[in-house]
Design a protein that fits this description.
Elements (H helix, E strand, L loop, with lengths): L5 E4 L5 H12 L3 E6 L2 H8 L6 E5 L5 H15 L4 E4 L14 H29 L2 E6 L13 H22 L3 E8 L23 H14 L7 H12 L7 E4 L1 H20 L1 H4 L7
Parallel strand pairs: 1-2, 1-4, 2-3, 4-5, 5-6, 6-7
Helix pairs in contact: 1-7, 3-4, 4-5
């Protein structure tokens, strides 16, 4: 095992990102950890050192991301594993969310990851090695959660461009893995992390019930351990042929299988009609 690999982790000040950074450093890896406020990571992990490089980075600012990656390369001389982990959930139905609320969720979850990818891929191409992890969500594979349409759509977008990225980077010996986590016991659903609609509409009872279930019942009772997730990501990074799609958590597997069965059923049920569109000649 090459314990001198350099990892670049976004959204590293809390949750899965923080667990991963701590685990990597304890395992002998070098880590660059990005966050919006550098104090939030240094108070958890410590100041910069030969193996740790905390970076204050605005994910939504392409030039800022470019400088952060350049500074990381100056510090370590290389980047081997990239984890696009930063993101947040915006609750709200399509009607009640404002244009600004929707665009901000896409700015962070989609365009933020693209800013990192666009600026780090030239280095990986030249290096002819590397591994990019894009952290999606089971909500990026199963979207039927009332009140979570925008968040899920950002993660569907991550899934879409990751499949293309995997093909684009294959010839450069750069692996790409799309991770669909289920519910992990982090502060992802806590106040200050998850965003609720500024102008909720009371008529959406199903969405309000789903919202309250996540904020009050699921938060703090998630079935999956983020510490084990960090171990899983490290194990995947050590595989010679890692998967493009990776579902993480028993709940994620259950949700994915339910959707696969639903799609299979819809395909079979409507096969004659759905395949009736070809020319007759």
């Amino acid at each position: 095992m090459n314990t001198k690999k350099v990892w670049f982790v976004t959204g590293a000040s809390k949750g899965l990102g923080l667990e991963l950074v701590k685990k990597l450093l304890a395992s002998g890896y070098c880590v660059a950890a990005t966050t919006r406020k550098i104090q939030s990571i240094t108070k958890e992990v410590g100041e910069a050192s030969a193996s740790f490089f905390p970076i204050e980075m605005d994910l939504t600012d392409n030039e800022n991301v470019k400088v952060a990656i350049a500074n990381c390369l100056d510090h370590f001389g290389q980047i081997d594993v990239v984890v696009n982990n930063a993101g947040y959930s915006q609750i709200g139905t399509l009607e009640e969310l404002s244009d600004e609320e929707i665009k901000e969720n896409f700015n962070v979850n989609v365009f933020g990851s693209l800013n990192v990818i666009r600026n780090i891929v030239p280095h990986l191409r030249q290096q002819q090695s590397g591994h990019i992890f894009n952290i999606s969500s089971i909500g990026g594979y199963v979207g039927n959660f009332a009140g979570f349409g925008i968040y899920c759509s950002t993660k569907f977008a991550v899934a879409g461009f990751t499949e293309a990225l995997a093909e684009e980077m294959k010839s450069f010996n750069v692996h790409t893995t799309l991770v669909y986590p289920g519910y992990f016991r982090t502060n992802f659903l806590a106040k200050g992390s998850i965003q609720t609609p500024a102008n909720p509409i009371g008529a959406y009872k199903a969405a309000r019930e789903m919202e309250q279930a996540h904020l009050n019942d699921i938060n703090g009772n998630q079935p999956n351990d983020p510490n084990k997730a960090a171990d899983v990501l490290i194990t995947l990074s050590e595989q010679s042929n890692p998967p493009v799609h990776f579902f993480m958590g028993e709940d994620a597997y259950n949700y994915a299988n339910l959707k696969i069965e639903s799609i299979k059923g819809a395909l079979e049920e409507n096969k004659v009609l759905g395949t009736s569109t070809g020319f007759n000649d």
